[in-house]
Each structure stands twice: as structure tokens, then as C-alpha cells.
Write a structure and sequence with these properties.
Layout lengths: L10 E4 L3 H12 L4 E5 L15 H4 L1 E4 L2 E5 L3 H9 L3 E5 L6 H4 L3 E4 L16 E5 L11 E3 L10 E2 L23 E3 L4 E5 L6 E2 L4 E5 L2 E4 L4 E6 L5 E2 L4 E6 L12 H19 L11 H4 L6 H4 L8 H8 L3
Parallel strand pairs: 1-2, 1-6, 2-5, 4-5, 6-7, 7-8
Antiparallel strand pairs: 3-4, 8-9, 10-17, 11-13, 11-16, 12-15, 13-14, 15-17
Helix pairs in contact: 1-5
Amino acid sequence: MAVIQTPRPLVLIKGAGDLASGVAFRLHWAGFPVVMTELPQPLMVRRAVSFGEAVYDGETTIEGIVGRLVPHVEAARAALAGRVIPVLVDGEARVRQELAPAVLVDGIMAKRNTGTRITDAPLVIALGPGFTASVDCHAVIETSRGHWLGRVIWQGSALPDTGIPGEISGQATPGRVLRAPADGLLETCVAIGDAVAAGQVVATVGGIALRAGCAGVVRGLLRSGLRVTAGLKVGDVDPRGERACCFTISDKSLAVAGAVLEAVLGAETCVRLADLPAARPDRLYESVTDEARLGLTLRGPQSARLQEVSTSV
């Protein structure tokens, strides 16, 4: 297969959990050089598909793409030259000052803004609730499962966090999600990908048993030996029972990643809708009768152009 060489701007992603890693994966395959930052001791449930695992293991591979822990910017640049995604321990992403990325993506998924500013890069994108597009970032990506998942929001915010994870095969909290029953040291009894029965002990926290709420396979589980707090999500069980789902990027993560790619390319190319007859705005948005009620803006950086075209067709 022929490889098309197209220079792409550098993207810096804050956070290297499963959603952020899905974004990194998709941008990497689209030709963007990607650098990721993480905490010194990240808490990642879906570890098998998180480049942040490199913080512990030095290197991790997700669907053929290698993520590698690097000590500094020079090593990050060397990793990029080798088509590897570098991961830096830098909780505040101060490395952005030296890297000067064209795009910064906040993929921490803290459900609040932990310090990202709209001035951090020419294009700042944030995943999920806790951000307001045009205030502390340029675009927000909807991460809540449902009809709006993967939408690019150029004005306003994502849906608020409900604290209730989305359903998979009809199973939601408390059946699917595993939460620490107390403060203490987490000691796991199973591994990611293992089949479990409802009621089976999957871990202990401070000596207290944590049991699976439904049958399935363990899709995610924090590392054994970490100290956790009561109520913290430490794992989840996939009732579909498909082991392959534990080691591949999820549909949700890919939807979010596709939205980030859309936002980056939209800002980069500023598509002229007038040159695309099939994309007439009156056809594209004719089913949207009350944009304000929807709580999001469907227009991107070419909003002024869209408005002009809308009134001329």
C-alpha cells in the first residue's frame, strides 16, 4: 500500500487513559504526530487500551501502535521519528511550552477543568463535561453515550456528568461497574479478560471483598497494589462476554476520536460549504428546529461562511 506523506501539525494530549488513547490512536493513523502526558501514578481502569500504561511498564502496544515512556522532549521527538507515541510524566502538561503544539486536547476526563486554557494552543479541544467552548477551549467533544455522542460543540458545553455509566447489553451501575467498598489497598484476584460469574470475588480492598455484580468478562481493572478510596471505580465487567472487547479500542472511544479528528481537520482546512453542493446547509440542518434547545452549536470554525451560504441557497 502506498504511503501518502503529508506534513501534519503536532498534537499534545493531556491524559493517556482509554478515551485519550483512542484519540491518539486515530490521530496517529491520520498522520498527526502525537505526544501524551500523564500523572506519575495514573489510575486507569481500561489499562489494556491506555497508552498511560507505559508509565508503569515503560512501553505498551494498542492495536499495533506503540506508546513509550520518555524522560524529556528530545526523547519524545526521537520517538515520533520512529512512529511511536511518546508518553511524558507531566501532570500539568508544562511540556507544551517547549513543544509548542498546534493542537492541545484535554483528555483527562476529570469531569471538570483542571487547568486547561483556551490560550494553551492555537486550537484547544476538550473531552466531556467541565468545559465551555469559546471560553476555556475552542471545541468540546460530547462523550456521553446516546444520540449526541461524538458531536463537536463549538459553543457551549457537553451534557453534564450524571455519575451513571452507560449501559452495555442492558447492564449498568451497579451490575457492571466495580467500585471500591472502602478506603485501602486494592488487591486483585482476576485479570483483565478473565470470565467471571455474578457474585464472584474479583478483588479485595483493605481486606473487604469486592464482587462482580453480573456475569461477563473483566474489561477493565486498576493495577493491584494501588491505594483507592471508597466509591472509586476500580473496574468493570462486560456482560457481552467477548474477550476481544477487553483489548481493543471501544466504539465510544473511536466516536470521540473521530470527533477530535473532525475538529482538527475542520479548523485546518476550513471547508468551503459553497463548493460542496451536496452539503447545502438548508438540507443538512432542516431537521433541527430549535438549536438553542439542543444546547449545542452545529457550526464549526466556518460558522460565518455557513450563515452566508444558508441565506443564499
